[in-house]
Amino acid sequence: MNDTLRVRIGRVEPLAAGIKRFTLQPCDGGALPAFDSGSHVVVHMDGGRLRNAYSLTSALGEPGHYQIAVRLEEASRGGSRYLHERVREGDELHIGTPGNLFSLDHGAGRHLLIAGGIGITPFMTHIQALAARGAAFALHYCFRNAHSAAFLDVLPATLQPGQLHLYESDSGTLLDIAALIAAQPADTHVYVCGPAPLNDAVVNAARAAGWDTARIHFEQFRNEVDATGGAFEAVLQKTGVTLQVGADESLLRAIEKAGVKVDCMCREGICGSCETAILEGQADHRDQYLSDAEKAAQKTMMPCVSRCKGQRLVLDL
């Protein structure tokens, strides 16, 4: 874990039903790397067996600690459950340095922020950055009920009148996405983070309204896709390794078992960090990162979830 930071759990506290906040402090007592709004860190758990990316929610420019908010997922593969049930104050973990796949476009005239559930987390730093710049923005926060909504106690005091709009589905208060998109000035950029249905609805509404894709930004935490399938052969051109990828394993897992390192973070086809060039063959694309045109071009693929359409792939690895 030479590329990671060693941190100590300074504090664990409940934020809402099923959500805990973890304060991460450097074990050496020094400063942690600075980060931009929308950044995340990959948390390594259980000796590196589990790795999950979590948005940083702490104050920008605070080098003494990081904070993340983690919801316990019912269908957790181990990451959120490990943090909720096994990690205690004083424990040590390794984390990656901050990365950012959900940055603000400061060239926008107005910023429309739409959060769903735990998708509020990256916006906690975005609103800091936008407020510091005096930028025009509004946050629309959708949640089931107040009991399950993180940061609901601090947002009203943090934002100016008219900047915060709340939608509680249990009480029947719902966001009219199409109307909201239609009411935006032409220089508005939209940012959405939440469950896949919310992300898809916002992206589709913006596209239907004729928005350029450069004005549409989204981050998704989960991609419910099966990375298994028919067995095939993968040739790693640079390293001269030929792999037999089993039906019950992902291509990325087979590559890692062969001792070949591939950059990766989410392992769910969302972040794009494992994007790999295809030299021969066709990929069965299952990611949510590449556009439809990029998938059709068959130039690159995400080995964490995507597979081979035929029997053989040659990759630039």
UniProtKB/TrEMBL annotation:
<keyword id="KW-0411">Iron-sulfur</keyword>
<keyword id="KW-0285">Flavoprotein</keyword>
<dbReference type="InterPro" id="IPR001041">
    <property type="entry name" value="2Fe-2S_ferredoxin-type"/>
</dbReference>
<keyword id="KW-0479">Metal-binding</keyword>
<dbReference type="Pfam" id="PF22290">
    <property type="entry name" value="DmmA-like_N"/>
</dbReference>
<feature type="domain" description="FAD-binding FR-type">
    <location>
        <begin position="2"/>
        <end position="105"/>
    </location>
</feature>
<keyword id="KW-0001">2Fe-2S</keyword>
<dbReference type="InterPro" id="IPR017938">
    <property type="entry name" value="Riboflavin_synthase-like_b-brl"/>
</dbReference>
<protein>
    <submittedName>
        <fullName>Putative dioxygenase subunit</fullName>
    </submittedName>
</protein>
<dbReference type="InterPro" id="IPR039261">
    <property type="entry name" value="FNR_nucleotide-bd"/>
</dbReference>
<dbReference type="Pfam" id="PF00111">
    <property type="entry name" value="Fer2"/>
</dbReference>
<keyword id="KW-0408">Iron</keyword>
<dbReference type="InterPro" id="IPR050415">
    <property type="entry name" value="MRET"/>
</dbReference>
<keyword id="KW-0288">FMN</keyword>
<feature type="domain" description="2Fe-2S ferredoxin-type">
    <location>
        <begin position="232"/>
        <end position="317"/>
    </location>
</feature>
<dbReference type="InterPro" id="IPR036010">
    <property type="entry name" value="2Fe-2S_ferredoxin-like_sf"/>
</dbReference>
<dbReference type="InterPro" id="IPR054582">
    <property type="entry name" value="DmmA-like_N"/>
</dbReference>
<dbReference type="InterPro" id="IPR012675">
    <property type="entry name" value="Beta-grasp_dom_sf"/>
</dbReference>
<dbReference type="GO" id="GO:0051213">
    <property type="term" value="F:dioxygenase activity"/>
</dbReference>
<dbReference type="InterPro" id="IPR017927">
    <property type="entry name" value="FAD-bd_FR_type"/>
</dbReference>
<dbReference type="GO" id="GO:0046872">
    <property type="term" value="F:metal ion binding"/>
</dbReference>
<keyword id="KW-0560">Oxidoreductase</keyword>
<dbReference type="GO" id="GO:0051537">
    <property type="term" value="F:2 iron, 2 sulfur cluster binding"/>
</dbReference>
<keyword id="KW-0223">Dioxygenase</keyword>
<keyword id="KW-0614">Plasmid</keyword>
<dbReference type="InterPro" id="IPR006058">
    <property type="entry name" value="2Fe2S_fd_BS"/>
</dbReference>
